[in-house]
Amino acid sequence: MSKVLMIGAGGVATVAAFKIVQNADVFTEFMIASRRKAKCDQLVKSIHDKGYNYDIKTAQVDADDVEQLKALFNDFKPELVVNLALPYQDLTIMEACLACGCNYLDTANYEPKDEAHFEYSWQWAYKEKFEQAGLTAILGCGFDPGVSGIYTAYAAKHHFDEIQYLDIVDCNAGNHHKAFATNFNPEINIREITQKGLYYEDGKWIETEPLAVHKTLTYPNIGGRESYLMHHEELESLVKNYPTIKRGRFWMTFGQQYLTYLDCIENLGMSRIDEIEYEAPLADKPEQKVKVKIVPLQFLKAVLPNPQDLGENYDGETSIGCRIRGLKDGKEHTYYIYNNCKHQEAYNETGMQGVSYTTGVPAMIGTMMFCKGLWRKPGVWNVEEFDPDPFMEQLNKQGLPWHEVFDGDLEL
Ligand code: NDP
């Protein structure tokens, strides 16, 4: 028996829900809870409309509120809580899991709302509490973070004695035919991209100006794309768990149009995350004006396309992988492992585009690893700290097959 509660009903959660239902032999009871119950019910309807006959419970919960979470967990009694809400809710959900004896999985590390800053220290601080409670917490189980760490663990287990150079490369060569849109939650996405770059070299972290370092990299089946060095959370755990790494970097592609819009958004002050005061008429009494506090980036999110609606006209594909250089039997080797995912295939299966798909599928596989007893150990862990082999086997079965290139030119 495995009883799973998923929090969130957005793009990533939709894909994870489809995949959970497709693996009904593993997941016997399933509930979706989110800020708005109607959104959960709509998701269940879209699953049933695709012909899956699976009983899914739904509930309303504000995941910022530990007491509400505890009441829900004590009522449904899930074995595992899958957090596919936003990074802001990681700590409240972990707190409630501890209080109610539930295990935990997420896809993005904690970020305080008032500071665009992410690092694992907040969640790693729960390690002892989860250990003492005999509970497992699996952190960062999407694609990147997630599969990027599992690829690295697989490379370390099977192909290298010593990993020395690691470059995670993330290309979205898709086109959604909108002037500007983000592929996952716009608020989280813009906060991440406008941060300073950061990479690891010879035991030190080196900061760069936002998107200042870039070069053209060649992606399989896609070709050359300008790729920008960014800070990405999995580097923090990977350089800790693989101390032989001399340099660890993360690269992501952006089109020129996206960058031009992003520049305008920043220059107009619309990426601000502090509150501004604004006087506006009341929605139901327009003659009455009130002063409200608005966070410009949250307002921008409200007017941008919803990433969940991008799928229908999205063509092209993503290509995400790890380019690794290191030693095996005293000789230097290179290794490139990657997945390409077509947006239209993701849409046909789940109604969501490829970025939600490449995140939701690994979230389900991590959930499966836990439920099958393959990834269970008390404490708080990043994905590379578990056995990568059963996860890698499922990637091939669940729609994200991987490919390897041995001793090729890494370009990096
Ligand atoms: P969405 O904004 O589409 O979905 C978030 C969901 O969480 C929405 O249903 C939202 O409710 C719900 N939610 C937000 N706040 C609360 C709250 N306080 N209580 C309950 N529910 C809440 O985001 P995505 O699906 O695009 O992304 C989900 C997560 O996946 C994010 O944390 C993101 O950072 C992560 N991610 C990870 C990636 C990886 O590779 N590791 C890649 C892409 C994303 P409502 O619908 O009412 O707004």
UniProtKB/TrEMBL annotation:
The keyword Oxidoreductase applies. It is an enzyme of class 1 (oxidoreductase). InterPro entries: NAD(P)-bd_dom_sf, Sacchrp_dh-like_C, Sacchrp_dh_NADP-bd. It holds the Pfam family Sacchrp_dh_NADP. Its EC number is 1.5.1.7. Gene3D superfamilies: Dihydrodipicolinate Reductase, domain 2, NAD(P)-binding Rossmann-like Domain. One of its GO terms (molecular function) is saccharopine dehydrogenase (NAD+, L-lysine-forming) activity. Residues 4-138 form the Saccharopine dehydrogenase NADP binding domain. It comes from the Bacteria. Residues 142-400 form the Saccharopine dehydrogenase-like C-terminal domain. Keywords: Oxidoreductase. The keyword Transferase does not apply. PANTHER family: CARBOXYNORSPERMIDINE SYNTHASE. This is Saccharopine dehydrogenase. It comes from Segatella baroniae F0067.
